[in-house]
Structure formats: structure tokens, C-alpha cells
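Hey team,

Filing this mostly as a record. A colleague (T.K.) asked me to run one chain through the structure pipeline before their review meeting, and I want the input and output archived in the tracker in case anyone asks later how it was produced. No errors, nothing strange. Just documentation.

Input sequence:
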Amino acid sequence: MFKPATLRISAIIALVLSSLGLLISILATFVQPGVALSIVSWALLLWAAYLGFRLTAYKLYEDEYKKVGLRIYAIIVAFIAFLFVGVTVGLVLAVVLLGALWGLKKNYDEWQHSHPAEDTEADTL
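Output structure:
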């Protein structure tokens, strides 16, 4: 469930579902003009799904993959709630998920930048 290959597939699914949620929200603006907030929410969730996808390519510890995986799965659950329950995903949820994934990616990028020798040793093993 939290293996890199499984998370990569889940991240692709989250990307597709977020794109679909964004498209549905954009189309809904023609019918109901007050859904601009859902467009922003889905755009942020799409960005979060992309960051999750990028993080699946990193060499992480098992507990770090779990952190990334839980956030990716939360994006998928948000789409299901949006589609079947009719709940517009809140801006707060989108910002929290995006912030969490962005923070993880930033930390891993800084670690790789400040410890390049350790990173190359891991590649040769």
C-alpha cells in the first residue's frame, strides 16, 4: 500500500481525478456562478497530486512513503466525496494537503542538496 510503485500509480490516479474535479468545477461555473472557490481548491489539489507524484520518485524511508501515501490517498478520497456526496472540497483541505506535500518535498530537496555525498553513496549500493 505504501510501496513506491503503488504510490506512483495512486499519484497518477490522484492527478487524473484532480484534473477531472477541476474540469467539473469549471463546467459548473456555467450553471452556478458561485463555484469559483471549488476551482481554486481543485487547482491546489492538482498541484498537490503532482508534488505527490514527484515525491514517489525520491528514495525515502518507509515511514516517509507512508506520509506521502496518506496525503495522496486523501486527494482520492476528496474526489470521491466531491463526486458522490456532492461536497465541494474546501479550500482549507486543499491548502493543508498542498502545504504538507510541498513541505516534504522541500525538506527532501534541501537534504539532497546539503548532503550530496550521502546521496551518491546510496545510488551505488
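Quick notes for T.K.: The chain is about 85% helix and 0% strand. The CA atoms of residues 10 and 73 lie 7 Å apart.
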